[in-house]
């Protein structure tokens, strides 16, 4: 026997092979090592083994486990490495010689390994031999098995078995399916050589389509870029360009989406599958991972908010998710994907993950990794990994309600503030902000302009203007690019000098989290701003021609009717160009969930957050007043008596600055097509405002049902 070759005998039982590493799931007295062979990946490096022997182990597994074992054998074998399988023949299994056998095989069973089917889309092994055999004669195929452990046959029986084998293998398909010699063709012996596959990637990130699909998947793009930098491969399977808007696992379109993702996964054959998770995604993640493992049994990694805040929701005995990454994922994923094995002692040394320890039968959270302090170590997001033609088409919603070929860009991470309705502190682990160098941000913007014909940028940092010198540096360096941009900020982090500098540098809109016009509510939510600051900053924006968007929240904890009235009054005074209205929801990971949501959600109730049912009702009701919250939103719109005649879309459309940008753009004809297509909707909304103003002359009991009906029909007044 060639002692230089590395051989592994999987599930050896009493079939010991000399010169090989004999492995089993329990200590039998004949194995060299005890390994959990149903926990993947196995503790051997890829492309490191010369020969893998599997004598009768597969018969004790179910179908999914068999597929996983064959795939793992392919992973650890060197190119052209040998896979040797022995399994009981189906006819012999029917004799119940072994009560532990779950699966019987015929010669046809091995056709699946040849590929071109839903289990193995591509061939993993090139078949050398496929034979019928009698127990006790395997030494002809594998001379290294220790048959001193088996009862020897008489000379006559031995010769009879040899003759039976020779006859049966002259036409194995016939004898395997139609004849059963008296000597007993009790097993099948398969030998194949590994075929190298070129399409396998280290990880495939799967994106669920969302109503916020206008925004690029930055977490997955950043992870992909960093993994590439570290010598790993990653792809993003993005459903947004194909399937528009939100849907649940109960919707019929989910089946189409799953087929799309399944086919993409089978194309790239990832070693791991990654999924971002929010609380509202929980049911989707469990349903998807359960189904996808029937076709591709790769370990699944979840990350993002829910995986960080409550990783044990995903990590438990029998879960279809193997790992949860807590916090920032770049450094953690590299270590996890490069880990030599998945043994608990190895995983415990990887910071920032949660996994299930099969020995202790517990979910294990490893040491926190902490934040990436120097963002300059991160490469530019992998824009080439997604369909940029979809994300850069002229579209509304990102900046106001006019069309822009716009791409959101991050210039930093984190938020130093402590708003009680936000999970930022739980996700990042602390309230801090880390910024990328401005030169690095400018280079990214130049790349987007030159490579993707982008006309506008939306700075999506939680609070862009925290550092005054940094904002002024950005304005100085972006001004020569002559590009339109917008940003998010807070009224306590900006003044007239900054507003003026930003406007002169091309900024056309600022989005503010106003949240409430009641100082009591702002203080209770630890917002850290005053109503006077709100009024002053919105006035300064108007003075310098800066468009504004105000986000407002109702159903805040302990909110009284007087607080609602003050929100009306402040809104009418600041007159933003656009607004966002919403009901406050207590999500896990926020302070208001801990402090004002006593009856916590069970895992099986997370679907309520996905479907949006019951917001503001039952235990989701956080306010103290008895106003109907649906009526409240209607009333808010009813009380905006100073609505402009035309919505924002129409006003921008006939703005000289906007028209100049359109006709200078390389995408000018895409803009024209998009604007023409949307003109009927824009004018319908303008007409809707005329109808709205007409409603105001009626008594409340008449106008309220009319406006509520219009609201349900999707008319967004004031925009």
Automatic annotation (TrEMBL):
Its cofactor is [4Fe-4S] cluster. Residues 198-347 form the B12-binding domain. Signal peptide: none annotated. It comes from the Bacteria. It comes from candidate division WWE3 bacterium RIFOXYC1_FULL_39_7. Transmembrane segments: none annotated. SMART domains: Elp3. One of its GO terms (cellular component) is cytosol. Keywords: Iron, Iron-sulfur, Metal-binding, S-adenosyl-L-methionine. Residues 401-619 form the Radical SAM core domain. One of its GO terms (molecular function) is metal ion binding. This is Uncharacterized protein. InterPro entries: BchE-like, Cobalamin-bd, Elp3/MiaA/NifB-like_rSAM, Methyltransferase_Class_B, rSAM, rSAM_horseshoe, rSAM_sf, SAM-dependent_MTases_sf.
């Amino acid at each position: 026997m060639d002692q230089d070759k590395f051989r592994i005998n999987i599930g050896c039982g009493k079939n010991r092979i000399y010169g090989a590493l004999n492995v089993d799931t329990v200590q039998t007295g004949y194995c060299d090592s005890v390994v959990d062979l149903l926990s993947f990946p196995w503790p051997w490096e890829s492309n490191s083994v010369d020969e893998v022997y599997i004598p009768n182990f597969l018969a004790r597994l179910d179908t999914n486990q068999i597929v996983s074992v064959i795939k793992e054998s392919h992973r650890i074998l060197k190119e052209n490495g040998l896979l040797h399988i022995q399994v009981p023949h189906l006819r012999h299994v029917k004799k119940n010689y072994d009560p532990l056998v779950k699966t019987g095989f015929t010669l046809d069973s091995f056709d699946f390994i040849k590929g071109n089917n839903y289990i193995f889309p591509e061939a993993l092994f090139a078949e050398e031999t496929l034979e019928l055999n009698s127990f006790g004669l395997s030494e002809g195929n594998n001379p290294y098995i220790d048959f001193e452990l088996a009862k020897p046959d008489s000379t006559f029986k031995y010769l009879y078995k040899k003759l039976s084998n020779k006859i049966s293998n002259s036409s194995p398909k016939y004898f395997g399916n139609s004849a059963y010699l008296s000597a007993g063709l009790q097993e099948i012996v398969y030998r194949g050589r590994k075929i190298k596959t070129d399409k396998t990637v280290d990880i495939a990130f799967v994106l669920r389509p969302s109503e916020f699909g206008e925004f690029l998947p930055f977490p997955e793009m950043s992870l992909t870029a960093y993994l590439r930098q570290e010598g790993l491969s990653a792809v993003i399977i993005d459903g947004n360009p194909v399937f528009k808007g939100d849907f649940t696992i109960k919707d019929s379109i989910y089946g189409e989406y799953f087929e799309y993702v399944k086919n993409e996964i089978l194309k790239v054959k990832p070693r791991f599958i990654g999924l971002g998770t929010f609380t509202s995604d929980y049911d989707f993640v469990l349903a998807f991972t359960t189904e996808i493992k029937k076709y591709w049994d790769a370990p699944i990694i979840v990350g993002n908010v829910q995986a960080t805040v409550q990783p044990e929701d995903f990590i438990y005995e029998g879960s279809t998710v193997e790992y949860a990454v807590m916090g920032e994922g770049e450094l953690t994923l590299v270590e996890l994907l490069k880990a030599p094995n998945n043994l608990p002692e190895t995983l415990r040394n990887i910071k920032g993950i949660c996994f299930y320890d099969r020995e202790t039968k517990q979910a294990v959270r490893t040491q926190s990794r902490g934040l990436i302090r120097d963002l300059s170590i991160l490469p530019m997001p992998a824009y080439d990994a997604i369909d940029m033609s979809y994300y850069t088409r002229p579209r509304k919603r990102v900046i106001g309600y006019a069309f822009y070929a716009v791409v959101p860009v991050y210039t930093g991470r984190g938020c130093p503030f402590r708003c009680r309705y936000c999970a930022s502190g739980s996700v990042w682990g602390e309230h801090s902000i880390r910024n990328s160098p401005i030169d690095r941000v400018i280079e990214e913007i130049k790349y987007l302009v030159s490579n993707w014909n982008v006309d506008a940028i939306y700075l999506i940092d939680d609070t862009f203007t925290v550092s005054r010198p940094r904002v002024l540096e950005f304005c100085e360096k972006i001004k020569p690019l002559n590009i339109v941009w917008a940003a998010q900020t807070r009224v306590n982090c900006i003044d007239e000098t900054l507003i003026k500098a930003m406007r002169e540098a091309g900024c056309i809109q600022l989005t503010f989290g106003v949240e409430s016009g009641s100082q009591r509510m702002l203080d209770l939510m630890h917002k850290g701003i005053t109503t006077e600051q709100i009024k002053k900053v919105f006035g300064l924006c108007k003075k310098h021609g800066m468009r504004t968007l105000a986000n407002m929240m109702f159903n805040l904890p302990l909110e009284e009717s007087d607080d609602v009235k003050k929100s009306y009054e402040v809104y009418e005074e600041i007159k933003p160009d656009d607004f966002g209205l919403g009901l406050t929801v207590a999500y896990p990971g926020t302070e208001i969930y801990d402090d004002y949501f006593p009856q916590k959600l069970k895992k099986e109730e997370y679907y309520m957050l996905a479907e949006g049912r019951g917001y503001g009702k039952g235990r989701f009701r956080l306010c103290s007043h008895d106003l109907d919250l649906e009526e409240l939103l209607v009333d808010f719109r009813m009380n905006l008596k100073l609505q402009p005649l035309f919505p924002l879309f129409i006003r921008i459309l006939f703005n000289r600055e906007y028209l100049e940008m359109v006709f200078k753009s390389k995408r000018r004809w895409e803009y024209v097509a998009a604007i023409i297509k949307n003109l009927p909707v824009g004018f319908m909304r303008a007409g809707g405002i005329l109808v709205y103003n007409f409603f105001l002359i009626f008594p409340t009991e008449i106008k309220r049902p009319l406006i509520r009906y219009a609201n349900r029909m999707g008319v967004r007044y004031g925009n």
